[in-house]
Design goal:
Strand order of the largest sheet: 8-1-7-6-3-2-10-9
CATH architecture: Alpha-Beta Barrel
GO molecular function: metal ion binding
CATH superfamily: Glycosidases
Strand content: 15-25%
Radius of gyration: 27 Å
Organism: Paenisporosarcina cavernae
GO biological process, one term: carbohydrate metabolic process
InterPro entries: Alpha-amylase-like_C (IPR054174), GH (IPR017853), GH13_cat_dom (IPR006047), Glyco_hydro_b (IPR013780)
Shape: elongated
Number of strands: 18
Helix content: 25-40%
Distance between the termini: 99 Å
Largest sheet: 8 strands, mixed
Number of helices: 16
Mean pLDDT: 88
Structural class: alpha/beta
Protein name: Glycosyl hydrolase family 13 catalytic domain-containing protein
Length: 436
């Protein structure tokens, strides 16, 4: 019941984004963004001077993370390919996750000062990254709604925030959320983007192998969905896969690979890159450890670089060519480029034959990670084979054929090399005769 309530709260969240006034703000089409979702207190402690009542041994207490800590790690986040950072609530609070606000007009002093918060925003914008802040409605009622709206409006007017996410404590607050969003939109000229909950669908599809993906396929085609394998209010994806006796890093890589292949807004919870575990919030909101193996990070970086350079993978059309027993073949395309994405979330090697009807005549598929170039055998068929628990991206391009100039040059080099060998041999033979 608790898990269902938490997921429902996530479903009722919305992202409110300021209308673009500068190049640093979030793009109007959020599918071009990639969001790293964190809690300030649990991420990085760069300024021990603001640590008050900190106890890293008690998961219900503050751990010491602060604005400066996030600022110091922006390059770490950007290097993985993320373009936006969601930092949770930042207002004065008596809870580490910021959900229980005690003063809507002040920043949480444990997180840092106004100046340090502005430094975080400036540093992010210098890197062309966006900052998203949560506006919780926990504790908000019709009696104090006007005061909360006034405080949030003043907050948006004071700081150069790129986006805000309005979150609810329960479904009954939905009308309050609508009033808050409408008021902020009126005073700040903001645009509203709904956030769909996809976590349960992702976990049901990828926590282990050979699971049916029909329900996931419905999520896969939604360009407005926030694609996420877990959130700050759900069980960690690692916990789900560990319960299935699966190897979490492999499971995470398959899920992230699939996530980056879809339309929508890819969003990753902090710590996923190190396979952070946890079933409850107290367990899953661990202090971030930056000294770990980089297997997932390396893979994530490559996948995000690929997605970041392709408009078709970000905002293009999607066709599901095949879906059966954990094996999915997608086509992502626009007028300029076409991709075939193969997701093998099964326990065995799988094969699928792409036809010329799908990609056109005289093409070839160039694998980005696991495969070589695939060409048809003059029958318009392109056989794709992929091992278990892998995701491969194939770029579709015109068949190149043989490079005659290159082959002639290669033959010339070979002939010259053989002539050189002959001359050396002949010269050595003459010297032998002279020495006699």
């Amino acid at each position: 019941m608790k898990k269902t309530t938490l997921l429902a709260c996530t479903l009722l969240a919305v992202i409110v984004l300021q209308t673009p006034a500068a190049a640093n703000e979030l793009n109007e089409n959020l599918s071009t963004e990639s969001v790293y979702d964190l809690l300030v207190d649990r991420f990085n402690d760069a300024n021990p001077q603001n640590n008050v009542d900190v106890n890293t041994q008690d998961p219900s207490k503050f751990f010491g993370g602060d604005f400066q800590g996030v600022t110091d790690k922006l390059s770490y986040i950007q290097d993985m390919g993320f373009t936006a950072v969601s930092i949770g609530p930042v207002f004065e609070t008596d809870t580490y996750n910021g959900s229980n606000i005690t003063n809507y007009g002040e920043l949480e002093p444990r997180f840092g000062t106004d100046e340090q918060f502005e430094q975080l925003l400036d540093a992010a914008h210098t890197k062309n990254m966006a900052i998203i802040v949560d506006l919780p409605l926990a504790g908000v009622t019709t009696e104090n709604l006007d005061n909360v709206i006034s405080a949030y409006s003043a907050f948006l007017a004071k700081y150069d925030i790129d986006g805000v996410r309005v979150t609810l404590a329960n479904e009954e607050q939905k009308p309050l959320r609508e009033e808050v969003v409408a008021a902020i939109q009126q005073s700040s000229r903001v645009s509203i983007f709904p956030v769909s909950d996809t976590v349960s669908t992702w976990q049901d599809a990828f926590r282990t192998v050979d699971l049916p993906l029909a329900q996931w396929a419905k999520v896969a085609t939604n360009p407005e969905a926030v694609q996420a394998i877990d959130t700050l209010t759900s069980e960690r994806f690692t916990a789900q896969s560990a319960e299935e006796n699966m190897f979490p890093p492999t499971r995470i890589k398959v899920a992230l690979g699939a996530m980056m292949a879809l339309p929508g807004i890819p969003t990753m919870t902090y710590g996923t890159e190190i396979a952070m575990n946890g079933k409850t919030e107290a367990e899953s909101h661990q202090y971030m450890n930056f000294k770990t193996e980089e297997e997932i990070i390396d893979y994530l970086t490559k996948i995000q670089k690929l997605r970041g350079q392709s408009e078709a993978l970000q905002t293009g059309n999607i066709d599901i060519l095949h879906e059966e027993d954990g094996f999915v073949v997608l086509k992502r395309w626009n007028d300029e480029e076409t991709w075939i994405v193969v997701i093998n979330n099964s326990s065995e090697t799988k094969k699928y034959t792409v036809s010329s009807e799908d990609i056109g005549e005289k093409k070839e598929l160039r694998g980005m990670f696991e495969s070589d170039i695939i060409r048809s055998q003059d029958n318009g068929k392109y056989p794709v084979v992929l091992d278990r628990e892998l995701v491969e991206f194939f770029y579709v391009e015109d068949r190149r054929g043989l490079n005659t100039g290159y082959l002639v040059a290669l033959a010339g080099v070979y002939v010259l090399f053989m002539v050189f060998i002959y001359l050396v041999w002949k010269k050595g033979k003459n010297r032998t005769k002279e020495s006699r």
